[in-house]
Records
---
Amino acid sequence: MGDQESIHSLFQPTFGNRPVQYIGRDGVIEQFMEGLSEPVGSRNRCTLFLGQRGMGKTALLLELSDRASNAGYVVARVTAHEGMPKAIIEQFQLNGSQYFKDEKRKVSGMTAGVLGFSFGLTFSDAAERQYGFRSKMSLLCDKLAEKGKGALILIDEVRTSSAMREVAAAYQELVGDRKNIAIAMAGLPHAVSSVLNDSVLTFLNRATKVELGTISTHLIRAYYERSFKTIGIKVSDEILDRAALDTRGFPYLMQLIGYYVIQYTPTGDAVTEAIMEKVEKAAMGDMEDNVFKPILAPLSDNDKLFLKAMARIGGTVTTAKLQAALGENGPAIQPYRKRLIEAGVIEAPRRGELVFAVPYLSEYLLDELNN
Ligand SMILES: Nc1ncnc2c1ncn2[C@@H]1O[C@H](COP(=O)(O)OP(=O)(O)OP(=O)(O)O)[C@@H](O)[C@H]1O
Ligand SMILES: [Mg+2]
């Protein structure tokens, strides 16, 4: 490290990138990796990660992709758009081709294509034309198994769609055929909303569900300490505490705070309280645009009324207090409560109690009310 560019890429507060250093989530990663060593079809080989925007779903899938590749899997990483089945096939062909480099192209006129492939992981013309997703996957799994490799599908931004239905059905059939296949999906909390009723939903609900929470602020503090030292920024214990606690363990905010500290502190200088104030302000601006606004946008006016009442009461909110705040003629709590929990905006730590599930959303709503 040392040149200007690497200094500034140490923290990257953007979505969907691979972080320079992956922090925390050891338990989550281990559980999934253990699943990969379990027999085909075991429940941990089909996992669904749920988390709010910026909680690190895409980063986790990228990390799992690396780990699984090292553990003998060829990985296809896609988002759940309509072209997904085709994209999955292409990803396996692309990422698996390195294991078939020594296989010479078959001489034409021979029985090439009988087994479905013309060479390597390229399908014969006939297979390409005649076979659908499931048959192609079956051929690919067999071919990869010849090289001792399994197949791992990673699906980001999971939602119900006909493409998702096709992949889910194929996965179940491939498992039935004992193919060495596994799947990990990631999506927003409401991806499994009970409002939806669909075969995809059944599939998602049968998967091992893992809710992604915040990461340890101790780990974040240690990471900040190492990073700032590497690039020659001086930082006191108090400032380190402040920066780490500021993040509340939220991965996107960890990147934002780290990024702005480096931006606002000249190399060789110390981070001051005044710099931290600027950092916090800038970070909150990005949180507003990229987390708070997208979360609030799809909600109804009454949803927002509900959330603002919660923010005004503050802390852990009891249902009784909330009903009182909304007034007797206000909206009934139950349907909103249920929907907002499903949307991952609020949580019920205990029966009859509610808290915000997104860090600083309460503060943001209060600010909005006061301005
Ligand atoms: N465990 C982690 N360690 C370090 N950085 C992380 C970690 N998890 C996420 N990040 C970083 O936080 C930011 C947000 O993460 P990511 O893009 O994965 O969120 P997401 O949950 O996929 O959000 P969205 O729902 O908007 O797609 C990225 O800059 C990412 O690199
Ligand atoms: Mg993402």
---
Amino acid sequence: MFWFWFNGEAAPKLALREVSFRKIFNYLDTVDASQPLVIVETGCLRTPDNWAGDGQSTLMFDRYLQDRSAGGICYAMDIDPVATAACRSLVGPRTEVLTGDSVIVLRDVAERLRASRQKISLLYLDSFDLDWNNVTPSAVHHLKELVSIYEFVTPQTLVVVDDAPVHAVCSTNAEGSLVLLGEPVVNGKGKFVAEYAAQVGAKRFFSHYQCAWIGFR
Ligand SMILES: C[S@@+](CC[C@H](N)C(=O)[O-])C[C@H]1O[C@@H](n2cnc3c(N)ncnc32)[C@H](O)[C@@H]1O
């Protein structure tokens, strides 16, 4: 049912993010089906139907959970009450939409996970909007988000950062073709999460417009 909806309705509109959302849901399909799934998302759906621009992540996570026989929960959060109200109107009871700064709200979510003895299967980070001319404030914020909830990340948790394509330094050769001057590195919202991932030996799961890792712990 989910995949029928994803392939027919969502995928054709997802543009750059289609390939990575497909990999995210394929990964969730491999998680023990007898256990409730926990998805934690920062930066919720804010504009209905803005598929190519934002991604409609909360709607897709909610649809995925609705289909799961063992159930599960998505904690989605946003600092903008207009965004959380819009999001709430589009999702079902398996998604809890919380309002506030994600670095703080994630600590509340951590308390709930501690009480219910649950860990996270998917951590999806997509808050603090990016300025491509100065990625640092947003990239730092996303690293802080990871810190706030790190205790509930397991070796199997898929950590995804949106708006995190690779950047490369290039030059042009005599024919005018681009020549790479070094390894492309993850930039955007994921710049510092990627640096941390490399330092602790997390495994890059995919790198498209979104970037993902497993094995953070
Ligand atoms: C790109 S949008 C999220 C899009 C959504 N994930 C989707 O796929 O449709 C980014 C959101 O992050 C929110 N945001 C910005 N700063 C934030 C913060 N410090 N804490 C929580 N949310 C924040 C914005 O209000 C905005 O709604």
---
Amino acid sequence: MIAATSSVDATRELAAAVAELVRPGDVIVLAGDLGAGKTAFAQGFGACLGVEEPITSPTFTLVSQYRGGRLPLYHLDVYRLEALDEVADLGLVELLDEGAVTLIEWGDTIAAALPTDFLEISLTLGDGDDDRVLTFASVGPRWGARRRALATVLGPWLVTDGAEEGTC
Ligand SMILES: Nc1ncnc2c1ncn2[C@@H]1O[C@H](COP(=O)(O)OP(=O)(O)OP(=O)(O)O)[C@@H](O)[C@H]1O
Ligand SMILES: [Mg+2]
């Protein structure tokens, strides 16, 4: 599934639409280069959950926790991690046990340490300065089962719904 946005606000709105589908224990990996819009996604996502605090980049803190919303939100940025051992120190598994929702910026770089079930969203720059392309991939059954629901909420931004992939 591929979606496109033409402003940071549109990326935040798209993220809020994804957050409508989220359940306790969900993990979302945000992939993409510096400035692609991963933190912007986290901001719109958190706002939909009801987080009122400003969501900022956790590049130096590695993990930020927001408890004010309808589910606890953990926002990780693993850009600065140099080894998978350091990922173990984050206690990712314990976080997931709490029934929180976890967003992981640069999560694709720690694939070996991730659970087997997550939604990966890859953000890339588009043609114009404010254009972004977001590619959605469900890994495992949790998000696989929500594929149609995801296509529905992403409707306004979809470039292709991936129907050719044969989901019935
Ligand atoms: N369509 C868009 N979607 C998201 N961000 C956009 C868009 N158009 C422009 N921007 C700008 O791109 C920047 C995205 O920054 P953001 O911090 O979200 O990126 P990031 O992927 O988290 O980067 P980093 O890897 O450094 O954490 C912001 O300055 C934002 O205003
Ligand atoms: Mg960021």
---
Amino acid sequence: MNDMLRRNFAEVHPGLTPKEAMEESNRCLYCYDAPCIKSCPTGIDIPSFIKKISTGNLKGSARVIMDANPVGATCSRVCPTEQLCEGACVLNGASQPIRIGLLQRYATDAAMKTGDTLFAAGPRNGRKAAVVGSGPAGLSAARELARFGYAVTVYEAKEKPGGLDTYGIVSFRLPQDIPMWEADQLSKMGVAIRTGVRVGTDVHAEKLLADYDAVVLAAGMGRVPALGIEGEQLDGVYDAIELIESTKADAFGGGLQGARVIVIGAGNTAIDAATCSVRLGADNVKIVYRRTRGEMTAYDFEYRFAKEEGVEFRWLTAPKRIVGNESGKVTHLECVRMTLSEETGKDGRPIPVPVAGSEFLMEADAVIKAIGQKRLLPLIEAFGLEHERGVVTIDPVTYRTSHPKVYAAGDVVFGQGNGEATVVSAAQQGKLAAYSVHRHFGGISAETA
Ligand SMILES: Cc1cc2nc3c(=O)[nH]c(=O)nc-3n(C[C@H](O)[C@H](O)[C@H](O)COP(=O)(O)OP(=O)(O)OC[C@H]3O[C@@H](n4cnc5c(N)ncnc54)[C@H](O)[C@@H]3O)c2cc1C
Ligand code: SF4
């Protein structure tokens, strides 16, 4: 990556200055029964951490945040705060809500700079737990289990820990050193994070079941599925997650300089792929989506960011065929106009229907697929777990799967009404799975959890 691109991929938003942080923290009303706490899926004691900032106790503030949320530094950058804590702040309407995300970032950034370890592992309780995957769900489960005294080993297929925080979310929103610090906090507590080890291949599921008292499956989801249309094999067709990952690993091979890029999909992955393409030098980036703005799943802040970056949106437009030239290189995307039917699908959203005869061609040098993620069926089946189309079946309270030793959390259970595919939801589920493991072994009462 050249210097220009390196600059383009640097974090976009500056944090608060000390003066701004002080002023912002002093605006907080420190509400009794604060609604912001209730709106945080991990239940961070927000007024308490804000109060600590106002008194200059930044380490104490970071401890409050990270105690409730083991990936609280990441969440300060990627959470949809306007729909969560900031959306619930009592100052909405009267003035501006407290900028909770930025204050959370201010406190955790300060903790990162000190290099301090915020928490210690509990005295060993003689039990061993394995965690599969080191994304937010896995790190949270592992951190809580370590605090309960389990000897914890995290198995991670990639070279670095952090899951999509490290390899998925674009670096200009979330630099890699943030999830690295969160993982390092666990290593300093004695959690063994074995990277480059793929469960199911390098170590078998049966071995984990035999060697550990409990297993938490937090392996997330897989790559982007095929579109199932002609032309997907052409040169210039990318998987959004692979493309973003290559930029995070500084390994993008190039090819988007001056390009006309079309991204298919309208979730957070599509937005990240589109804004990444802008930063990789694309001349024009369009997102095509078969429904409308009202149904897109990307957060509002992501949508606004994409618009600011010059990304164009083509609503009610579905891809039909990717067209290439004689050398096998993408030249066009054939699309069809859609209309929304009165009927709704299982997800409650109106079903898009093609308008007969409305096919048209859009010029493109690259097409990026961003239509969700595949499920990790071979891994789920290696543990012999019940699942519904790849969504691991769990008890919604205990996160226990159909195997009595195995618990599951995060994106691996997302779908079929289980939570959200967000970092904060994965973190909370990881915590809850750890509490259930410990409760199962008699170490925790229902009230504590
Ligand atoms: C491009 C993109 C942008 C996003 N933006 C946001 C955002 O702004 N805000 C937000 O809240 N959420 C966002 N998300 C969603 C969020 O990243 C996920 O919901 C969250 O990371 C899920 O956490 P997880 O721990 O369940 O899984 P993951 O983060 O996917 O981690 C799973 C880990 O398990 C590992 N693994 C898989 N199989 C194996 C195996 N067999 N053996 C060992 N290890 C294995 C993987 O390598 C991975 O490291 C985004 C997602 C994407 C793709
Ligand atoms: S609701 Fe707003 S004002 Fe009240 S404690 Fe939370 S952040 Fe502070």
